Amino acid sequence: MYNKRLYTSLFLLLLVLSSLAQSDTPSLVSLTGTLLDEHTQNPLPYANIVVEGKNKVITTNEKGYFLIRNLEKSDTLNFHYIGYEQKKICVCDLQQGSLVYLKEAIISLNEFFVFSKDYDVKEIVKNVLKNKDKNYQSTLSKKQLFVRHRYISNVDKISIKFKKSSFSHLDEKMTKVMEQKIPKQSISYTDFLGDIYTSNNDNDTLKISPIKIVRLKDKNVADLEQLEKVFTNLFSNTKENEYWKLKSGIIGGKIDTEITDPDADLDSLSNFHKNNFTVKTYAERLHKRFDNILDDKKKWDFLHNTGNYEYTLVGGTKVNGEDVFIIEFKPKKSGELIGKLYITTDSYALVKADFKYDVGKTGTNIQLFGVGYTFNQLDISIYFEKKDDSYQLKYYAQKTGEKISFDRNVSLIKKKKRFLIDKELNEIKVGLNMISREESSFEVMVIDEIKISNLTYVNFKQKDTFKIIYVDQFNDNIWKGYNIIEPTQQMRDYKKIEY
Q1: Contact of 479 with 224, CB cutoff 8 Å
Q2: Parallel, antiparallel or unpaired: strands 141-165 and 76-80
């Protein structure tokens, strides 16, 4: 009886102590909001939000949106954006969906230039390329990188008119099925988190150690795979002395249908490549994209062809303790781009740039013989951060758009090789009328960077492949504990349709 009372008392005591402990533990909250320019009300993309006193940094997405988890009510958030005044706000003073405004920190020219000096703004811009090799050096480093690639294709018009066919199973009915099966919208997203190893030797390439790769499945992948199987089966019956040709008017070319390994299981190979990420290929693509990034004369036209632009020195500011010129530019007749540059006063390093096509301007524009192609959108935002004596990429965001139109007859022809003139075995001819819009975005954020030795770089062995995680819908738990760019609402709303 005594023991029973003792156990009961101990149990009640533990409950009381547990309750007291819980009451002393601060409750954790999540906070959402949008960071905006105080004057223009425009979103501030890729801004840093630091939780003071904790090793935690959040980055806003392209819409300026942020989501911060596991906050205490007493935490203080410090909002940073290049060229803007910092702002500190206590979590207790913010609500869900708060709009946070930052004021642009532009110092007037009279205040900025203490000593009277006439600056040639065009010469300031020209000095960026003159000092490029000194300012942007390759370093021995290990960087943690987050990359998001988004691709959207919209088919605004598709019409396939049957003309003729000598294939028994490719008839008018089949062309109608093809017309219906071609997706009117295709969407894909891929998120990559990994470490990259870079060398200070120009002959070395970067190496990648993936941590996690997440891909949202395309809603219309089932329809695309059905169409792919039709043509895979068609091409699989090609004999050694036969080949395929695609022709439109006088323009034509052979189709490569050869299989490297004739004994390979095509379905297994297809599934392997869909589910596994080829590390070397991705590393080469990243290296090509960011190696000597300012050398792309088309993309950085305002640096390479300064005569095509008007430049205005609007003021100055400080970026990480350095004095920086703020320069706005717009195109003359031969230029295409409009934007804003932040260039250091001492080293002439371009630390930040935001630019896009001006209204009414486009890139490549071809309209010829029923074929149209217009590169009509280019938006780029880039930021370099000083590390020792060199400026290293901190983030890069690019959005491109293009419009494609095609209104011509197209023939798929199977031929047999012969002396002098090859024999035509089969042909299907259709009238194809299509208009589509393609949009692609590419975002890179460097989360962390440390120096490494040459031995560390040399000894790191890159994997051949890495498993891709496929999801039907964006799930916050997948990236729990990782610092990534907050997904857009479009990504959150995306959900695969089951077939």
Answers
A1: no
A2: unpaired
Bridge partners of 29, per DSSP, are: 71
DSSP 107: B
- Burial (CB count within 10 angstroms: exposed 0-12, middle 13-18, buried 19+), residue 21: exposed
Residue by residue, DSSP assigns 396-409 as EEEEEEEEEEEEEE
Measure Cα distances from 25 to 29, 31, 56, 73, 119 in Å. Answer: 13, 19, 20, 12, 58
CB burial of 475-497 (b: ≥16 within 10 Å; e: otherwise) equals eeeebeeeebbbbbeebeebebe
Residue in 358, 380, 383, 286 with CA at minimum distance from that of residue 59: 383
For the chain, how many helices (H) and strands (E)?
Answer: 11, 23
Domain 13-102 has CATH 3.50.50.60: no
| Closest listed residue to residue 271, CA positions, set 497, 496, 465, 462 | 465
Tokens of 22: 């819980």
Residues 44 and 34: their CA atoms lie apart, in Å, by: 8
The candidate with the shortest Cα–Cα distance to 60, out of 448, 490, 486, is 486
Strands (E), 199-234: 207-216
DSSP letter at 68 equals: E
What are the extents of the domains in the chain? 13-102, 125-493
Contact 195, 211 (CB under 8 A): yes
For the CA atoms of 68, 70, 72, 76, the dihedral, rounded to the nearest 10 degrees, stands at -30
Please answer whether residues 332 and 310 qualify as being in contact, where contact means their C-beta atoms are separated by less than 8 angstroms. yes
Give pLDDT tens digits along the chain (499 positions): 545 555 555 555 455 445 444 444 457 888 999 999 999 999 998 898 999 988 788 889 889 999 888 899 999 999 999 889 999 999 999 999 999 999 988 777 666 665 446 679 999 999 999 999 999 998 999 999 999 999 888 999 999 898 888 887 788 888 888 888 888 888 888 999 999 999 988 788 889 999 999 988 665 555 666 666 777 777 777 888 888 788 777 677 777 665 444 444 444 445 545 667 788 888 888 888 888 899 999 999 999 999 999 999 998 888 888 899 999 999 999 999 999 999 999 999 999 999 999 999 998 888 888 889 999 999 999 999 998 889 999 999 999 999 999 898 888 888 888 877 878 788 888 888 999 999 999 999 998 899 999 999 999 999 999 998 888 777 777 887 777 877 766 667 665 444 3
Structure tokens at 407: 């209104």
Contact 392, 449 (CB under 8 A): yes
What does the DSSP 8-state code read for residue 60? -
Query: What Cα–Cα distance (Å) separates residue 142 from each residue in 209, 319, 476, 483?
Result: 10, 24, 27, 17
Give start and end residues of each alpha helix (H) in 447-486.
454-459
